[in-house]
Specification:
There is one protein chain. With 160 residues, the protein is of the alpha+beta class. The chain has two domains: 30 residues; 120 residues, Protein of unknown function DUF192 (Jelly Rolls), CATH 2.60.120. 16% of the residues lie in helices and 36% in strands. The strands form three sheets. The protein has a seven-stranded mixed sheet with strand order 8-7-10-5-4-3-11. Strands 1-2 form a two-stranded antiparallel sheet. Strands 6-9 form a two-stranded antiparallel ribbon. It holds the Pfam family DUF192.
Length: 160
């Protein structure tokens, strides 16, 4: 079967599959939530700035950081579940060890899981109900002095 692609009146026979593959590869390289945003974690040692990607839809939350082989030291992914509820995470198909911050609706960190095991299907529980989970590169919590009770400043969280 012959494929043709037209652009500005010109025909590019056989180029359609190549362009489709390029678009697919590019889409898989772009992070969930596409545009990176910033948040701050207010610790006793001072604010910690994090460049975040958002995982809001069920599909984005299901994929999360799966299949990635690296994550910048100042980057993370924020999973927004919309309402406070018990949250259960796992590391299936996730190659990067992570620290997970479980965050209440008011922005307070309710619990923390550190140095999660890549590729594990073991359940990681939030403990108390939370609205969101922030995944960071493993070791960030220890290195930055992040603790339960610290507050995350971001538009999703409201002060109480």
């Amino acid at each position: 079967m012959s494929h043709a692609f037209a652009l500005a009146g010109r025909s590019f026979r056989g180029l359609a599959p190549v362009l489709a593959l390029a678009a697919l590869l590019l889409a898989n390289l772009l992070p969930a939530g596409a545009a990176a945003e910033k948040l701050n974690i207010l610790t006793k040692a001072g604010p910690v700035a994090v460049n975040i990607e958002l995982a809001v839809t069920p599909a984005e939350r299901a994929k999360g950081l799966m299949y990635r082989t690296e994550l910048a030291p100042d980057a993370g992914m924020l999973f927004d579940f919309g309402v406070e509820q018990p949250i259960y995470m796992w590391m299936k198909n996730t190659y990067i060890p992570l620290d997970m911050l479980f965050i209440r609706s008011d922005g307070r960190i309710a619990s923390i899981a550190t140095d999660t095991v890549p590729l594990s299907t073991e359940t990681i529980s939030s403990g108390p109900p939370v609205r969101a989970v922030l995944e960071l590169p493993a070791g960030t919590v220890r290195a930055k002095g992040i603790a339960v009770g610290d507050r995350v400043e971001y538009r999703l969280f409201r002060d109480r």
